[in-house]
Amino acid sequence: MTGVSIVVPTYREAESLPHLIERVARLRAESGLDVELLVMDDDSRDGTVELMETRAEPWVQLVVRSGKRGLSPAVIDGLRRAAKEFLVVMDADLSHPPERVPAMIEALRGGFDFAVGSRYVEGGTTADDWGFLRWLNSRIATALARPFTSIQDPMSGFFAMHRSTFERAEALDPVGYKIALELIVKCRCQRVGEVPIHFENRRYGESKLTFREQLRYLQHLRRLGVHRFGAWPPLARFLAVGAVGTAVNLAVLTGLLRLGLGAPLALAGGIAISMLGNLALTGRLSSYGPAEGPLARRLFEFGRSSGLGALVNFAVSLATLRVAPRLPVQGAALVGIALGGIVNFSANRFQAFRERHVRPG
């Protein structure tokens, strides 16, 4: 009998847990898998403990965590506690179908290091009312993960791996909620398979995905970049951050145009959101990065170092549209991004030179 440990990180998911446990119980009965369920709860105090005390399933274990909280630390803690041959991670909110676990285990038996429950491969689907903005957010995050993996759905929180794969992990230090990407990189997974799933919307409770978590995802990408590629020289670092900003800019611009905004407002929105993303990625604002000093001062410094380039970007993009009105707005944006980037890099290098060589008095 194949042993499977399912790790479920939770925070205020008491309403969802009985339904999840029932579905996993059916999975055990119908598949013949020897499943243990580890509920890793971040001290929710929402009735989760009382609920689990009423359950009699010996294969279900509740672990109340009072130390370092967060989805990723909870998952890592659960994986370290897991006792079975195959390790599975899924959400408690019923968005991930436990019925697909056998297919994921078969993918691992077929030679994959890592198997992802995917919304975006053939056969994968999402709920009908998922919404354009949620789809756009997922697609942008997926595009930003391209330097680390080529799979279609690296944002999935539903995945499986061999115990031996997890045991070769290097320096696990995730930020935010995208633990699958951390494990793919840090466990040196060469063969990652995708199993189609139907992704449902949450049925109970509230989503934990906030704008702050999205900024932490950018910080996570930065850490993974340093881990995989090492410390980069200034130009390489600038180009890498610029590539992320460009992807975000164009994605937001396209989304705003589809929503009916005119070119000037869409261009301004794309520039503003990409600046916020670059700011979080470089750690100048995020409390998880090496930022120091009052928030107002850090905002001022960021505006000083990037504001001129943003203005050049916006002005050049509009001028390009006037000179070449048949050019797609995205094409004009690329021209503005290129010239604005040159201005930013030159200004920042000049400022760095002054700080090194010009002394007061």
Distance between the termini: 78 Å
Largest beta sheet: what is the strand line-up? 3-2-1-4-7-5-8
- Poorly predicted segments: 284-292, 356-361
What is the chain-wise order of helices and strands? EHEHEHEHEEHEHHEEHHHHH
Output the CATH class name of the largest domain.
Answer: Alpha Beta
Radius of gyration: 23 Å
Largest sheet: 7 strands, mixed
Helix fraction, binned, reads 40-55%
Describe this structure in words.
There is one protein chain. With 361 residues, this protein is an alpha/beta fold. The protein folds into 2 domains: 206 residues, Spore Coat Polysaccharide Biosynthesis Protein SpsA, Chain A; 126 residues, no CATH class. The strands form 2 sheets. Strands 3-2-1-4-7-5-8 form a 7-stranded mixed beta sheet. A two-stranded parallel ribbon has the order 6-9. Helix 9 runs antiparallel to helix 12. The protein is elongated. The termini are far apart.
Defining traits:
361 residues; alpha/beta; Spore Coat Polysaccharide Biosynthesis Protein SpsA, Chain A; seven-stranded mixed β-sheet; two-stranded parallel ribbon; elongated
Any chance you could write out the topology, listing elements then pairs?
Layout: E1 3-10, H1 17-31, E2 34-41, H2 48-53, E3 60-64, H3 71-81, E4 86-89, H4 101-109, E5 114-118, E6 125-126, H5 132-144, E7 159-162, H6 163-167, H7 179-186, E8 192-196, E9 198-199, H8 211-229, H9 234-258, H10 263-282, H11 295-323, H12 329-357
Parallel strand pairs: 1-2, 1-4, 2-3, 5-8, 6-9
Antiparallel strand pairs: 4-7, 5-7
Helix pairs in contact: 5-9, 8-10, 9-10, 9-12, 10-11, 11-12
